[in-house]
């Protein structure tokens, strides 16, 4: 059995018109926006190293330029965003180009399997007899194109492929905590997380990232979003604007969905807090049952020699 995390999250970059910037500037802009996913992967990898545990990272973001980890596997060796944007026939923009690259990866899944499982194309006939790597723990750094996870089938198809290759997976959905400090944004982020959970069909963990960048005042406000009271949040949404008052019933229905089913909860992450990082990794390990198939380590100890048995009577003196 092998284990993995699909690390996902929205780019938060807004809409950029294709052709407005040069491709290199677009790639840089998008990479900055989604960089925290790479920061999360690098943080987990460093934590694993300190804990004497091997955690590999696979980069599946064709637009990435810089990250703090050394990728075990890189999609850019197969296809890059520039390939889709500069092709005379395709001429995709940055958003469509990212989706095309992931779909291209799925169509060429043999390449991904060969890289992950060590089975070359020449060995396809004997692939079933080859012992694949076991107990690997891999983080898949996904692109920040949220459509891949909320409603398109590409993310789900990739997950099913990995599961067929003996991976036990968990989807980790990152949401910037700086955009979750009021009721309306919280409800919006919660619905996005719920869409990802339903579409990916995997064990799911939601993470509020960048907690270390929040001011003290905003950190104090985060408690009500970590254990949300839907009625209190609805009061903020419905009373702050004319739009909120007009669509009060819609907001109430969304709030009831969140509260009644308790489907979405967020876990805060401060990458500067080692205990926080360890707790989050332990939670995800429990979700994917990491280590439960491992053999129990048993050591045989020889009984002590008679001469080595300590005589406790020497500590007591007769009066």
TrEMBL record:
It comes from the Eukaryota. One of its GO terms (molecular function) is GTPase activity. Keywords: GTP-binding, Hydrolase, Nucleotide-binding. InterPro entries: Gpn, Gpn3, P-loop_NTPase. Residues 297-319 are annotated as: Disordered. Belongs to the GPN-loop GTPase family. Binds to RNA polymerase II (RNAPII). Small GTPase required for proper nuclear import of RNA polymerase II and III (RNAPII and RNAPIII). May act at an RNAP assembly step prior to nuclear import. This is GPN-loop GTPase 3. It comes from Anopheles culicifacies.
């Amino acid at each position: 059995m092998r284990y993995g995390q699909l690390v996902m999250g929205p780019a938060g970059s807004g809409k950029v018109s294709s052709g407005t910037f040069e491709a290199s500037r677009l790639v840089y802009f998008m990479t900055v926006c989604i960089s925290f996913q790479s920061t999360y992967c690098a943080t987990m990898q460093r934590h694993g190293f300190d804990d004497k545990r091997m955690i590999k990272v696979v980069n599946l973001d064709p637009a990435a330029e810089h990250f703090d980890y050394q990728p075990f596997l890189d999609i850019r060796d197969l296809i890059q965003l520039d390939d889709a944007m500069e092709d005379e026939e395709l001429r995709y923009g940055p958003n469509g180009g990212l989706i095309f690259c992931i779909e291209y990866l799925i169509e060429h899944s043999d390449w991904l399997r060969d890289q992950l499982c060590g089975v070359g194309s020449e060995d396809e006939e004997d692939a079933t007899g080859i012992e694949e790597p076991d107990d690997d723990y891999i983080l898949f750094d996904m692109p920040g194109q949220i459509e891949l996870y909320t409603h398109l089938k590409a993310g789900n198809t990739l997950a099913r492929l990995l599961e067929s290759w003996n991976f036990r997976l968990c989807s980790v959905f990152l949401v910037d905590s700086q955009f979750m400090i009021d009721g309306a944004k919280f409800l919006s982020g919660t619905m996005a997380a719920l869409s990802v959970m339903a579409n990916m069909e995997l064990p799911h963990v939601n993470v509020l990232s960048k907690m270390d960048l929040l001011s003290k005042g905003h950190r104090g406000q985060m408690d009500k979003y970590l254990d949300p009271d839907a009625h209190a949040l609805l009061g903020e949404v419905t009373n702050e604007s004319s739009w909120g008052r007009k669509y009060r019933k819609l907001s109430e229905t969304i709030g009831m969905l969140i509260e009644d089913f308790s489907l979405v909860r967020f876990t805060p992450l401060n990458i500067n807090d080692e205990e926080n990082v360890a707790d989050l990794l332990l939670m995800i390990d429990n979700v994917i049952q990491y280590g439960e198939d491992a053999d129990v380590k048993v050591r045989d100890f020889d009984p002590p020699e008679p001469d080595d048995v300590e005589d406790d009577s020497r500590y007591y003196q007769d009066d």
